């Protein structure tokens, strides 16, 4: 045998598995060294090549799993070249499963497996072998490690992690749409043969679905699968090893597939015409009925919005979309009247709110129906011509005077007669009454504005044929004032004065009140009821100031002095006026416009002591207010039936505009008379001399 043939056979023997009698040979060689086999290889040029060969170490056994024989399964044989066959050597086995799963014949070196081995539990075992001298117990070979590898057989079927899968896919999906992927695992060795190579197939669910053999992806197989026709599908998938060939093991799983909804169906009204009825007395907002369009889709794909798009009742009725029930609720928008109109027609539209653009070709996604609403008559209560009434009347009218009339009618077609009455809870004093036939309201007792300025009444209108049908309306009566109350002093005055009071000294301020309420405000005119030369009053319209009369002669004597009493009501006063003939003593332009005083002129009725040069100011224009005031007072006196039949003197006061001197009264002053300095009054001219004397007394006032 040549070297080449020897090498070839040697390589074949090494590469092929040996199940019959594997053997490990031990040789006494140094551990670090490797056995080298040399061979001469002739070259083409005649030279001989020396090639080196590696030392081969037998360190692996192979064992089939799932052995079913009755005897121990033979694994292999350990043998040392030091073994002479005389039993002097002893073989020892240690490592994974040594002594339990694997046993060795210490004389022959044969290794056996004591039980059936499952590769899926453990794929290989690592052990160590050693040969020792039985007598000296010394090793004759170094300890060697080897592996027993378990050969796989196809003893495991593919399994799915889930027995039942749940998946979904939208309806109307195109063919080939991925639904779900299922994956099976095989416990066999994927690197040895086809035991773990799995192929998928569909056993149930065709022709609707298919599965990819290599990946297990389930896909749709039919176009336009409609959920409304069928929603649930059950698909059974098989996974088979050995590449799906005959003899392979298989496992199955079930996949429940649901078609999810898409908006591929428009809403539809079940009827072309819907009839509803409503009472004319139904208030605004009343729901009178509902309409509903059906949609084969579900969820938001079935949501519908309702609206009124046409008809003669669009301003009388409204429609509200009820989201939960997906209904259109028709409500009253304005008050109804059977006598005005008895039938209305509406055109109602229902439209999907979520439309899928992919399915526009299946539209339009809306529908319409006609709704006819009949108005039913009811016996309605009377209706007043106004929502409320306001009457104004003077307090001095006679009892029985009509102050106003309320009107009401029966809105029904029968037009029943109306009876009016007063709600006595609103007129406990029975001051008013009403004519039951025509609604005229009149007084039954005298009125007094000072007791009650307003009367809030309630008038009832009821049908004579059906008194239960009644309506109420508010009637407000305002009592207008007339001057029927005399002024009264605000308090009782008990006035004291010192006997040595200085003339012109203020001794009492008097005010009055009046229950009446004239439009221009309360204005009073004060005078002394009895003539008393010791006192005089100063009229300030509302309040009056009582002064001590002047008892001493003035230095300025009037040129014209008449003490003749024509009548008792004509008295002589030491004032600044000169009577009707006096046109220069006091300029009424000061009242018209105190801001503008005419040129000062000397008086003709007194002897001037010094010549006073007045300041020049523009002439005040004529004031219509003052002129009208005087004319009105004169007219009132001429028409007053209680006025005496002889000439009398009447005193009036008119405030006019603000005075350039501001207030001359001490009523608003926080100080006493003695604290004020009134010397400046003497600088204002002769017209203010009287005030200067009254208030400019200095210490004499305090003494008094």
From TrEMBL:
Positions of the Cadherin domain: 80-160, 161-269, 270-384, 385-489, 489-646
Subcellular location(s) of the protein: Cell membrane
Matching Gene3D superfamilies: Cadherins, TCF3-CBD (Catenin binding domain)
SUPFAM superfamilies listed in its UniProt record: Cadherin-like
Membrane-protein topology: Single-pass type I membrane protein
Pfam name, any one: Cadherin
Superkingdom of source: Eukaryota
Keywords: Calcium, Cell adhesion, Cell membrane, Membrane, Repeat, Signal, Transmembrane, Transmembrane helix
Signal peptide as annotated in the record: 1-22
Function description: Cadherins are calcium-dependent cell adhesion proteins.
The protein, known as: Cadherin-10 isoform X3
